[in-house]
Amino acid sequence: MANKTNLLLIYTGGTIGMIQDTKTQSLVPFNFRNLTEQVPELSKFDIQLSSIAFEKPIDSSNMHPGIWIKLAEIIKKNYAKYDGFVILHGSDTMAFTASALSFMLYNLNKPVILTGSQLPIGIIRTDGKENLITAIEIAAAKKNGKSIVNEVSIYFEYQLFRGNRTHKYNSEHFDAFETANYPPLAEAGVHINYNQAALFKPTSKKLAVSTSLDYNIALLKIYPGITEQAVNALLGIKGLKAIIIETFGSGNAPTETWFIEALKKAIAKGIIVYNVTQCNGGSVIQGKYETSKSLQKIGVVSGFDITTEAAVCKLMYLLGKGYPLAKTKNLLSKNLRGEITA
């Protein structure tokens, strides 16, 4: 028993943890202490599997930074006891949670794998069983006595993705996630094939956990016909410290004087303006077109190929550190956890 790989399964909520009540026919969370009753295949693993379930399961749409802090604290508390962690989570906000944890857990040298499903685990055609079984197998996988995966990742429908590169793009298909700007970390078929070149290289440093997050940010999606009133309403939020602007293509936005002036005034007040593309793939390249030169000139920070999900979490993380404004802006354009192509 002492030589077995020890994994901790953390159930936050979401579709995967549901079964159908035989009396009411409604979906209810099942007791994770009886996990092997629902997934008997787990008993065939030579793994010591423990579990923690949130007392009240969190629907994915109700996910918030307080839960990210709780998860980071659970991992910190149990880090020395377990070889890896699997988090069961609703798929709608899974990319946000994975991104947040990637920044909050520094010097990670163990796997933290999030997974879930599109159909409840109690449904015959569920994708939950395969997702859970393979996520556990990957979390337990070692080479020369060391974990193969040493980062926060998402496993879904035969692929393992870097968490802070991931975007949920489909609500109907089992292959719900993609990482357009980064290759999968692993693909599961007859064998699990790891992309060694894409995997994060762990350090020998001790895990550091940061749970100070600052939520005083906003998100502005640029669209044709956007009004001055709408932009000023967001930029005028009391206590606002940063705003992400989701721009067209490679970082392009309207060149109208009122728009540029509104951003310029916000930047002068110390508000960070972070430029992220609306496209699932590709990168912000400020100055490539005339429609982004003005943004570059007034001091808008480029997010390069970061996802919106990772941008939100990175801002919360960096603002929570309380760094000087110049340092925060500099780090936003740097690759910290594999979230930006170096």
Task: Give the topology, please.
Elements: E1 5-11, E2 18-20, E3 27-29, H1 35-38, E4 47-53, H2 65-78, E5 84-88, H3 94-104, E6 105-106, E7 112-115, H4 128-140, E8 142-143, E9 146-147, E10 152-156, E11 159-162, E12 167-168, E13 177-178, E14 186-188, E15 192-194, E16 208-209, E17 217-221, H5 228-235, E18 242-247, H6 257-268, E19 272-277, H7 290-298, E20 301-302, H8 308-321, H9 325-332
Helix pairs in contact: 2-3, 3-8, 5-6
Instruction: Note the beta-strand portion.
Output: 15-25%
Extended strand count: 20
Major pleated sheet: 8 strands, mixed
Can you identify the CATH class of the largest domain?
Alpha Beta
Oligomer description: single chain
**Uncertain regions spanning at least 5 consecutive residues:** none
What is the distance, rounded to the nearest whole angstrom, between the alpha carbons of the first and last residues? 42 Å
Q: Overall 3D geometry? A: globular
Alpha plus pi helix count: 9
Q: Kindly state the mean pLDDT as a whole number? A: 90
Q: How would you briefly describe this protein structure?
A:
The protein is 27% helix and 22% strand. It is of the alpha/beta class and 342 residues long.
Give a written overview of the molecule.
With 342 residues, the chain is α/β, with parallel strands linked by helices. It folds into two domains: 5-209, Rossmann fold (3-Layer(aba) Sandwich); 217-332, Rossmann fold. The chain has nine helices and 20 strands. The strands form six sheets. The chain has an eight-stranded mixed beta sheet, sandwiched between helices. A four-stranded parallel beta sheet has the order 17-18-19-20, with helices on both faces. A hairpin with a 3-residue loop joins strand 14 and strand 15 (192-194). Helix 2 (65-78) crosses helix 3 (94-104) and helix 3 runs parallel beside helix 8.
